[in-house]
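Format notes (please read before filing issues)

Several people have asked whether sequences and structure tokens are stored in separate files. They are not. Every record keeps both together, in the order shown below: the sequence lines, then the token lines. Line labels are part of the format and must not be stripped during preprocessing.
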Amino acid sequence: MPADSKLFSEWIQAEAHLDFLRRNARADELVIYASGEYTFIHSVAVPSERLEPSDQQDLMQWSFNPYTSIASYVTGGGREDVWVERGLSGTGTKTLENAMQLIFGRTFEGWTGPGRTYYELHQEYAHLTGIHWRPEKRAYCRFNEHGDLEPVVSVTSREDKGSNIDLVSFKWEPLEEYLAASNASLVRMFDFTLLRRSGFSGWSDEPTQEIIESPDFFYRQKVMPGYAAYTRGVQIIRPRRTLEAIFTDMTDRWFGRSNKQYVEFIAYDWRNKRVTRISTDPAATTNYFQAKENALPFEVSPAFFRPEVLLKYKMDRDKYTVSDRDVSCRAGWHLPAIDVNEAGQVHAYICYLRRLPYEEQLHWLSYNEPPKASISERAFINDFKGEFVNFVQPLQKVLSIVRRWHDDKVVWWTLRDEKLLERVNTPLTESRDEWAEAFMDLAKLVIEGFETKEIRARLDKAQVPYEMEDKTIALLEKLLSKTGTGVEKLAGLRTVQLLRSKAKGHAGGSGAHQLAQDALTEHESFASHFQHVCLQVADELESIETWMP
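Then the structure lines:
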């Protein structure tokens, strides 16, 4: 509230408040509800047919708030039973009866701590928009196409630090879609009562002024110059775009047609037997059914990339999942059918690359290069012959064994975190960090899963001596040596543990550097070294499985 008398006189006329409503009606985020010392705003969705034309006199009689219940138990009226009456009522108007109340104010009577008053979202809107309450954001959120948490309905209350107002705002795009699909419009009611309460003694008998700015924005105003004023009215907010445009955007997004920007990848056009640039624009490629009508490259033409293309995704495990043959972004996108060829290149098909958001396509483009070898044997057999491969990659063999243990609920091994099954990946680049991270994940999955207490119990039963300071691998070696398997040392598991503690735990040390050099000297690449160790680990896990009672 302005202290200066001239500014106070201007303030009570509410021009700044009205200008805010005008501008906010065109903004990307709309105020749906606001309640402060001098401000009240509340909005509901109303069937558009009730507003064509709108009954302005009726609407100006509105008298309700988000605390108005939409259901109640009823008894009496000559009946002896109890029933439920549903729908918004008691609005003071005919137009707004049974309107859709988007938010609900709730008060936990008797509760005196934080959270006594809070706001709920209409479940229909929450389900249709796919949003969920996240307390750390003070908002109902969803993941956007980039896998980032996006507030859709934001809530501020007087309990929040630094706030003296209750405020609920909606992002416009999902709200517009809801209004269009519901054939509804938003009716926003407002009341700005502007005065100095300490010196206010009542309203004058002067008539109010009726102001109609447009059929969708009208209000009643009483101004007592220099003293007090109130402005009370209605604003109708309709979808800005045509229904056809809204519905087209919605269905294009659902069916993966919303990407309006495309990039050109260097790819192998195997139909025309050439390496060329192929656009992700659907019009630039063809499929088997339409091939007779053109000479375009097939949409399953592969593009090839430096293996570093995957590092971005491996660095953020909460947001991305990288598997042998796919990459996905939480609730955002999915790139299937990738693989790595003999030259160490990652390859992906044009038809799947086009589904990525444009920004992701640009990321992949930055690592694009001509093919140095054909697609992998596994990809050819799976994707073009439609058959299963008769060979298993070493890491997949390890994962298969521990999945079986998890499914069988063996008592001597526990899956500590199911995400680890997806996080363990073969390192593909020359990055020592990626190599070390791969062994860290493998150790967490396999070695940390063993139940030391159960292994000691089996050693006790077999009367095999051991030291209390013996760790998991040493205990397993002693158990296996007693069974006559011929296994004296679990070389694979020991290598995993060594690299977990040295290469990752002390990445800057000379010992870590020497381990990396030894791996490259013996196996030429980190990928080959990792696969070699995984093969050892898989054989050792099978031995453990065989002799664990």
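For reference, the curators noted about this record: Residues 526-547 form the longest helix (22 residues). Residues 378 and 389 are 6 Å apart (CA to CA).
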